[in-house]
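Researcher: Structure prediction, please.
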Amino acid sequence: MDELPIGRRVSYWRNRRKMSQQVFADRLGKSKSWVDKVERGVRRLDKFSVVYEIADVLQLDVQLLLGKDPERRPDSMNCIDQIEVAEIRSALERYDQISAFFYAAPEPPPIAEMRKAALHAWQTWEHGRYGVLARALPKLLRDAQAADTAYAHSDDSREAAHLLGQVYQLASSVLRKLGELDLSWLAADRSIAVSQRAGDQLLAGVATTRVANALRALGRHRAALEVNVNIANRLCPTPGETADDQLSVYGFLLLQGAMAASCIGDSATMRDLLTAAQDAAAGLGGDKNHYWTSFGPTNVLVHRAAAAVELGEGGLAIAIHDGLDPGAFNAMLPERRAHHYLDMARGFAQVGDVERAGEMLLEGDLLAPAEIRCRPIAHEVLSDVLRRTRGTPTAALAELAEQMGVGV
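Model: Predicted structure follows.
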């Protein structure tokens, strides 16, 4: 792409947007013949104003038309590349509600269609298919933003805002997993504002955990702790009168607060928050997935192990892992289980059992490959395991390392 003339670039992105030359011409206010000549290089694009207009119609960062394309990095899972990151950034930077005052808003998908798309995206996330979700995000974001703008003054306004809040949360979560931390924070911050507009305290509560997780990934652990605890206190349940969904979101906030506390070495606060989360899980009576939290007794134990790893207490994490009920653990969603295996790989490495650490990485890879192959921290753990392995690593681990491009 970086060697192509600008007309060929326009053609490439128009086709990628599944837009005919006629539709593209209509949106630009030009003729089909004009578009054809531009794409064939017969007509030059020598006005920046026209280039910016083309980029806007294509919903694209103008640098992808003018400058060098970001390089695609080789990746066995094709998790995400910098062209896709640029597309997501472009979608996140859109301000459709403001633009709607000056231009005709894009045609939104029906609410029922958006609801179905959001559900499918959640399922993709819960099965750890991060690359698939990342590639779907630009269109999903644009559609949800268009729906939120178009239905702002209708009976569907709150649901449209609710769906956009969900999409922002999904974007934040997957971008954090893939190491795009600034974009993750931006999407999380957007999710809070939209969730408040949707009038749903619980959606806003879950959005808070996305913001806190983005802050934690950026190293701002104390800020993450404070925001989780503050909102958890506001959602603190009333004994005997709390619905399961509120209890789940409250408990989820406590778990994320505990993780933030562990990152700053505040073990006392961490234990208090985990105990409160355990009480909430007991009140729930089992493992649920209200508001996509996967909250329940098993997830509390999984977070206890993860928090122990953050504190460097690998032995405690292993004891918790060994005590998990196999049936309850296997009933958890693939993303949660694979994430736990990655945590346990770190835990086993902490106690010097690099063989078991490697086994944990392989277990996670079998369950949800993107959790291991797409996450920067997994690459770090695998490199550490290889470096500390005496002799030759197992064939399976060596193959995984080769596929991930990880060396000692």
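Model: The chain has 23 helices and no strands.
Researcher: Thanks, that helps.
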